[in-house]
Amino acid sequence: MLIAESTDSWYISTAVPPAQYIYKYSPMFDEQKFLQLPEANQQLLEFMSIIYAPIAATPLSKLPPVATDPKVLRPVLAEMAEDGWLTVSTNNYFACNPDIRDELTRRSIREGRFAGLAKIVLDALAPEAPKGWYQKRWPTVEAALRDLRLNALLGETHKLASLLSEAEQQCSNSPKFQPHPWFTLWGHPLDEAWLDYLPEPVFLQMVAPAYLRQADWKMENASNLWERYNALLRTAGSGMSTVWANFSGIIYWQLFQRHQWDSDLAAMPPGDGGVRRWNIGICSAPFAPCRRVSGTKAWHFTKPG
């Protein structure tokens, strides 16, 4: 169930904008019921939420946090699947129920267990290159999504960029990567619950730009997402130059369509000392003069790619 935020007038188009681009999802996780489980089962569920992708009992049993005889583990997994905590495929691969997976992962972050468990998963379940291949391949789309998810939550911004490129090359035909894998991982609209858990550099450089770009092309209302992004830009510090180098077009477009000519983001010089310019029609002009001609009746502009 989605709880919609209110909308506002935001776009140059006269079309009525849809709902906001960040939503508060109604929680489906019953913590009291979860805490009634044996502690070992709680820990297993939390670990399965971090593993994300379906996994068979035998490889799961070999991971250090589990370290259990697979003959003992299988009936435990089967019972948890019967109770709805896990899902199970026809080939007996188990995964944390998607309805509770994200909240369990966030719980592990809050309580300080996530980083250690995530690194175990990334090391033990790293993709391998098939025989005769140079490039590593993920066995499933979910495994690629898992690695993206864990590296994003760990704040591995530089590693995440190359990982995202490799994953998109392998999984581009999957619906879970369309229009972007972030929409599968963080929700579409963006799940508000993730905002306090996505490291700031990852949000600024990797996550928010993808959502803002998609909102522009679909003429969707991203006002509340832009407000958060705009606020974080002002405290980005040393990371500001990277943001401007890669996403200045998106930032300008957001300022331009909202008529925010006097924004200090438009006024201050870029981190590399260059001149920021805005494409209006077939002419390239500095952003600031837009304020002087904003009273004209018609605009002809090209959106940054």
Strand content: 5-15%
Largest sheet: 3 strands, mixed
Structural classification: mainly alpha
| Order of adjacent strands in the largest pleated sheet | 1-2-6
Distance between the termini: 34 Å
Order of helices and strands: EEHHEHHEEHHHHHEHHHHEEH
Q: Which overall shape is indicated by the principal axes computed on the Cα atoms?
A: globular
Number of strand elements: 8
State Rg.
22 Å
**Unreliable stretches:** 1-19, 271-286, 291-305
Estimate the mean pLDDT confidence.
Answer: 83
Helical content stands at 40-55%
Count every helix, treating DSSP H or I runs of 4 or more residues as helices: 14
Task: Write structural notes for this entry.
- With 305 residues, the protein is mainly alpha-helical.
- Helix content is 50%, strand content 8%.
- The protein has helices spanning 31-35, 39-51, 57-61, 70-82, 98-110, 114-124, 141-154, 157-171, 181-186, 200-218, 223-233, 240-257, 264-267, 290-293; strands at 2-3, 22-25, 55-56, 86-88, 93-96, 190-191, 277-280, 283-286.
- Strands 1-2-6 form a 3-stranded mixed sheet, with no helix packed on it.
- A hairpin with a 2-residue loop joins strand 7 and strand 8 (283-286).
- Helix 2 (39-51) crosses helix 5 and helix 10 (200-218) runs parallel beside helix 12 (240-257).
- The longest helix is centred in the last third of the chain and has 19 residues, at 200-218.
- The chain is globular.
- It starts with a strand and ends in a 12-residue tail after the last helix.
- The model is unreliable at 1-19, 271-286 and 291-305 (pLDDT under 50).
